[in-house]
Amino acid sequence: MVASTIAVPSFREGVRPPRRVLRRLILGHGLGVGSRVLLVGNPLSKLLPVFERLGIRAAALEGQGDEWLGRLRSAKAFDLVLAAGGWPRCDSLFSREAFQHSAAAAGSLRPGGWLTFLDCCDDERDFAHETRCYLRHLECFPGRVLPAEDAQNSRWSWLPVRRPRYVLVGLQVAAASSERWLQLADEASMSLGGRCCNSAMR
């Protein structure tokens, strides 16, 4: 598992993530020419031309509710599935629907591929979920777990306002069948089912 926080402009304001975040995203996930990336969430569509210039084959997934889930299940052989701020219409990362989305995403990956969440906050908006919730969610699935890494830019720590920040939380998945991923999702929802962090206040 990889978790990192970086002080950067917010992509929710229509600003593409800066080079420092993109470098961490590409190098940290071992992406290169010919790699396949699936971007889930409208803010991430801004990354399509960036990946294309680097020879990385990227596609954006759009839709709502069950439509997202169906398209995730039909996607195959990706090296990275990158989702913005959790899953669509899933207020809680501990809900059955959220685990089903992650199971479908994991099933679309090559062995050793990454399922990663990208979130951000600024002075007007909090993270969609706390980092611990992303970590706890992904820990329900088999894969490579790495120590959490804090990359907060301390250069700005003296400022009286909170700097916009990104958080990347990812799981490098183990090999498993689509049926097994769905079984794990059901087990996780029965174990953790309910609300997480911010969703408890909605």
Helices and strands: which structural class? alpha/beta
Q: How many strand segments? A: 7
CATH architecture: 3-Layer(aba) Sandwich
- What value does the Rg take, in angstroms? 16 Å
In DSSP terms (H or I, runs of 4 or more residues), the helix count works out at 6
Pick out the low-confidence regions: 4-11, 147-158
What separation lies between the terminal Cα atoms?
Answer: 28 Å
Largest sheet: 7 strands, mixed
**Overall average pLDDT:** 77
Helix coverage percent:
25-40%
Q: Element order, helices and strands?
A: EHEHEHEHEHEEH
In total, the number of domains comes to: 1
**CATH fold-type name:** Rossmann fold
Estimate what percentage of residues fall within beta strands. 15-25%
CATH class: Alpha Beta
What spatial form do the alpha-carbon principal axes imply? globular
Describe this structure in words.
- The protein is α/β, with parallel strands linked by helices and 202 residues long.
- Strands 1, 2, 3, 4, 5, 6 and 7 form a seven-stranded mixed β-sheet that branches.
- It is built from six helices and seven strands, in the order βαβαβαβαβαββα.
- It has helices at 19-28, 48-53, 66-74, 96-107, 131-138, 178-192, and strands spanning 2-7, 36-40, 57-61, 78-84, 109-121, 143-144, 165-173.
- The longest helix has 15 residues, at 178-192.
- The protein has one domain: Rossmann fold (3-Layer(aba) Sandwich).
- It is globular.
- Helix content is 30%, strand content 23%.
- 42% of the residues are buried.
